[in-house]
Amino acid sequence: MDKVVEAVEKVKKEWDEAYSRTQEHIKAIEEYGKSREERNSLPRLNGLAQDGLALLSSLQFNLDLLAPQLPSDHEVQSATALLHSWKNQSHNLRLNLRNANLQAKANMRKAAQEERELLLGGGEESTIRRRNLQTKAGMTSAAESITDSLRRTRQLMVQEVERSASTLMVVEESTGVLKKSESEYKGHRSLLMRTRNLLSTMKRQDVLDRLILAVGVFLFSCAVLYVVSKRIGILKLQRKVTAAIKAGLVGQAEIGHRPVADGVNLAQVHEDAVHKVDVPFERPMRDEL
After folding, report:
1. Which domain holds residue 67?
2. Percentage of the chain lying above the pLDDT 70 cut
């Protein structure tokens, strides 16, 4: 059986016992004053009844704490209905205690009236009765003072027990909140660790991207420089070829206009002369690339 169910059953058993005892005390208060020989005084009976009511209130508080912890909804509803019934019974007991005290006072007034008539009657029986009343009154007052002191002490103890129970409940709630906070912190911690790993991966990827970009820019620059250098070399070669062609044409023209000696047209020999190359001036240039 579940521990909460066992605790609820124990509370029910204690309630039944305390309720029966309190009813007996209230019945004794209601009958007080009808008999000349009473085993307990009225204040003591009232103290016992008040203690019973305090115990019933404490049991109601315990059931109110245990009811929400029951395993099934049906048991929770049953315990709640029982708690409501207990509250009504406790209220009825308080009303019965009040009515019982009123009845006890009426009985005491009636008994006092009969006692007064007996005392005023005279004779030896009246004298013995007065002495007995004086002795009984002293013992009753002493017993009443002791009973009041014990009742106050018990009430203080009951209040301390209830305060300790409420403090324990608050501590248990705080413990539950702390456990929940700890579990949430662990979840956030794992999330932070994953986020940190992702950030590290992104940083490494960023460095790798930068390196790839730098290598790409370097290779592109090298290609551009290579193309530019090739273009410049071709242009220089073109200029040299054009200059050589122009120089050859000019030399031929000078040879054609030189005067003939002895009827023979001697061709002037130039060591640096360039052979005629049939290359048109408008020859298109092709890029080696």
Report:
1. 3-195
2. 73
